[in-house]
Amino acid sequence: MRVLRYLYYRVYAWNLRMWGESDLPQFNALFGVSVLVYLNILTVLAAIDVLAGRHVVALSRTVAVGMGVTLMVIGYFLLVHKDKYRRIAKELNGETSTQRKKRLIACLLYVALTFVSFFWLASLRNS
Q1: How many structural domains does the chain have?
Q2: pLDDT digits (tens, 9 = 90+) for 66-88
């Protein structure tokens, strides 16, 4: 949960700096983090198919959309509801520059690996 909160904080802080409060950075960050978690779930499902050598897991559009909505709702209650995003920002705003660099590199690696592994496994699954 700590990693998820930090990733949320980084996306929230970036969005806040770029566009300010009027762009609802708390919801943009929620959407971004939810998409990454969703891709992680799809990556695991694609890995199961690749390891099995056939399509084992098939998601209907309804189930896929339901999963996405469920992730957004859970994320909302964990990260946004009752101004939790402000408490997260206040808590993590005091990190040292060394902590910030290390954590930012970890976040960037996580995002890159999420996309690379998803598209790589999806291409393996569909070939």
Answers
A1: 1
A2: 999 999 999 999 999 999 999 99
- Domain of residue 29 covers 2-126
SS (H, E, C) the chain: CHHHHHHHHHHHHHHHHHHCHHHCHHHHHHHHHHHHHHHHHHHHHHHHHHHHCCCCCCCCHHHHHHHHHHHHHHHHHHHHHHHHHHHHHHHHCCCCHHHHHHHHHHHHHHHHHHHHHHHHHHHHHHC
**Prediction pTM value:** 0.89
Burial string for 103-124 (b: 16+ CB within 10 Å, else e) reads beeebeeebeebeebbeebbee
Cα Rg of the chain, angstroms: 17
